[in-house]
Specification:
71 residues, mainly alpha, 2 helices
């Protein structure tokens, strides 16, 4: 690869991982990174820090932003 990353590709990958995990009844609590600068725009978009996504509604998922802790 030419080592170029676009934020939307990373977001789509994270959504795919979340959806595949949900199909297998695995709960993803969070995504973490190694602090590489390629992830910073993605993290800003996903958290809503000074920016917003117009075409990807992350809060439309029923499990988004909620953690179900089993008793």
């Amino acid at each position: 690869t030419n080592n170029t990353y676009q934020t939307v590709y990373i977001i789509r990958r994270w959504i795919w991982i979340f959806e595949q995990s949900s199909l297998k009844n695995v709960c993803d609590v969070e995504f973490s990174t190694d602090g590489h600068t390629k992830y910073m725009p993605t993290i800003r978009l996903v958290t809503g820090f000074l920016v917003a996504l117009s075409n990807i509604k992350l809060n439309s998922y029923t499990d988004a932003f909620h953690v179900k802790i089993p008793k």
